[in-house]
């Protein structure tokens, strides 16, 4: 069965505390977004009946029904959960009353916590394991302050086969913002699913599969209708000066003859490192990166007791260099955009059957002789008076390349400068 032919009969509204089903809404126009790295949004547009007004309230959860045809990938898809964050009521020119409920994927609730502990992510450790044990356990799964616990939130104890490449330290950052950046850096994503039996919210870190060798969109495959390729060096940087922690040191002025201390004073020192690619003259583009949040000392639990430990100067400088390389790669790199439109009618592979959210595919323009491997970063369900459509979006890796792929009954996506789907 083609997933484009399956209509969503209604949306489910769930209690904000228990996540039990409390009602359904039929006949609404809907927009639901699934996002690999970031947090997808949603919108429900319907008549402002007493029934809808009573159901659509702040902090309630929204789910889609499990498909009656028992298609495995649709069951996985429709286990996603969103949370209502905004309610808007309007009257149109004809006197019609409407209500619009909108919000984000429920994994956004991680945004309610900050990283209070001094978390140290270890080099060569699995990303999922480190995030669960060092970030989620102390801050929302098993916090020392029980008021910070998020009930019904479960983190899957899995490994994704992607390891931390450098010792990393973080504290006081927003938990969602930090992990979102971390996932992008390591090419993994997160999803939150509702267990319909236990009503628990299951959080999982995962990585997509690489289909770039067998799934290729190009003129030669008769499934690429048009494309354009752009390179932008406006924000490109080649060298970074990274400033680490500041420390106060006591200094003494001594009489050279007697050795007597004449004066004691305090000076501030700061660890500084540089990362660069060797560019010179006008090809060299410099940037300063403030990394005072990275500290050389950290706390570690040893036999049930907290001990303060310190990185060696060499290890600490490597941590600063790693921060600099990450910033250069993510924020100051050459932006390459490959915008294309694909022909889904002639495409032999079907999204959400042959390849999924987070997977890698290839876009190639045979005429321009340009091609890149892209990650499917966003998937959208839209249902209105004209029927039901699905779209997917792709992002190039490792740099932020975004592909516009728009076609009726087909797939579409956005780029960093055009963030809305058409």
Can you describe this structure?
With 422 residues, the chain is mainly β. Helix content is 14%, strand content 40%. It is built from five helices and 24 strands. The protein has helices spanning 50-55, 72-77, 127-141, 175-186, 313-331; strands spanning 10-14, 21-26, 29-35, 41-47, 61-63, 82-91, 97-105, 119-121, 153-155, 168-170, 189-194, 201-206, 216-217, 224-232, 239-254, 261-276, 286-290, 297-302, 305-310, 335-342, 360-365, 370-384, 387-396, 401-403. Strands 1, 2, 3, 4, 5, 6, 7, 13, 21, 22, 23 and 24 form a twelve-stranded mixed beta sheet that branches. A hairpin with a 6-residue loop joins strand 11 and strand 12 (201-206). Helix 3 runs antiparallel to helix 4 (175-186).
